[in-house]
């Protein structure tokens, strides 16, 4: 079925909203773009809550911790409880502390990614190295190649490598991540988004970094964020009585948010303020098309 | 047909060598590994030349210029003429100056790669930026994202992006490369090797860096090195009377050297001192299996 365009049609919008009592909102490209709140996004969240809807935030952004996300919401005048924020870094930490519990002697995680992953792993009492550690912020040397080949500079307790977007990406860290994986560590990606939206365009996301690691390690990552199932597992752990059929995902990415919604048997609404365009929607596999779309989140305010 | 094991069988080795008068030798993993000459490699080259064979060097390594490769050969006591050295950086420069000539106002190249590419582009009088320029050796800032989105810090004359292995890879350069390509620049990869061999193991090569760029730009690169056809075009330009049937590729990579040889209708010999193992050879598509293999290049000395 072709996605329905809702923007400007108050009757259709109300009918759509009436079908759901819980909204799972993506953040980047839906609520904000970079450091800027998208116009009317706070009002839209407020309006949903006024109508008695539960609003939960789900993001593949692994650069910040949940606590840091809460501060950002606060800055934008949107009150949010930390238990209602699900980030791919948090999902990764949950997965590693519950589902695939790392056990000694291989209970440490090497991070090719940002502070958000470090903070969430720390919060879950998981040991980690790499990430933003200044010791890794340098050019590789011939000595490094030799030491990595001999594994003499590798930690023997690393059992997993977590890859996310890394604004301090360098070749030394890429080599470390690849070598740990080639030596048997589990390869997890916070998400496999090709890009993230900011300032009206897109830049390389975790999926781009993970592609480099995958190619050199000849290994596919375990996907933590959307469209994988672990985000839903984590939501259901916190919100035990959440019912899928009156729950709708609102996102800007066809391959992530909408695919996640379809596979988790949830409602789906695409917003056109981020990664996916109207043209992308027309070209996508109809199985993974959204039920409906709006130009921007603000269009849901009646 | 199953590849024939030649090591230790002098009669089979002589029969194999007798079939060819030109040998196209890969370098990394065949002649040397990192900074170390592989045992007996110089003697093997010497022995081939003594038997009247023409020896040409073909490498996907784009980190050094041909002149720099010649100095390395000299250091190892192997006399080599610059016209007999074909590197993927040289092929890239040839391609951009002859086949797909860049014209003003888009005649500049952004490099995500090493000095070898810079030197070969300079030698072919092609303007370039990026690469090892210290101005790009820093962390990305929020201001950079804003400027890149507005294209205000991009050169309007960039018509192509060349990606190779980059030991000074960082997120800022990755973003620049991806943004130029998303804005219409041609995307060339010196090669798409997943890894390169050094110190008895392997590390991320140009194919790993190109995979990150590909994923974020949603664009496949034009492949310059092996197994693409441009390496052969360049060899035939320099060696006009080279005949394919008595020519044999000797390399350590099934996906690069051997595939190149098969597709160019040349003889193929795998050495097991680099990327591909005996097990890889058993698992590979029989169409792209080598005719024969040796443990090491030195095994060709009789």
Automatic annotation (TrEMBL), chains A, B:
One of its GO terms (cellular component) is cytoplasm. Its cofactor is Mg(2+). One of its GO terms (molecular function) is metal ion binding. Pfam families: Hydrolase_6 (PF13344), Hydrolase_like (PF13242). Mg(2+) binds at residues 26, 28, 252. It is an enzyme of class 3 (hydrolase). Divalent metal ions. Mg(2+) is the most effective. InterPro entries: HAD-like_sf, HAD-SF_hydro_IIA, HAD_sf, PGP_euk. The active site is at residues 26, 28. It comes from the Eukaryota. Keywords: Hydrolase, Magnesium, Metal-binding. Its EC number is 3.1.3.41. Gene3D superfamilies: HAD superfamily/HAD-like (3.40.50.1000). It catalyses: 4-nitrophenyl phosphate + H2O = 4-nitrophenol + phosphate + H(+). Substrate binds at residue 226. PANTHER family: 4-NITROPHENYLPHOSPHATASE-RELATED, HALOACID DEHALOGENASE-LIKE HYDROLASE DOMAIN-CONTAINING PROTEIN 2. This is 4-nitrophenylphosphatase.
